[in-house]
Amino acid sequence: MTPPLAVSPHLRELARLRRVRDWIDRDFAQPLDVEGLAHSVNMSAGHLSRQFRLTYGESPYSYLMTRRIERAMALLRRGDLSVTDVCFEVGCSSLGTFSTRFTEVVGMPPSAYRLHAAGQTVELPPCVAKQVTKPVRNREAPQTRRA
Question: What is the pTM of this model?
Answer without folding.
Answer: 0.75
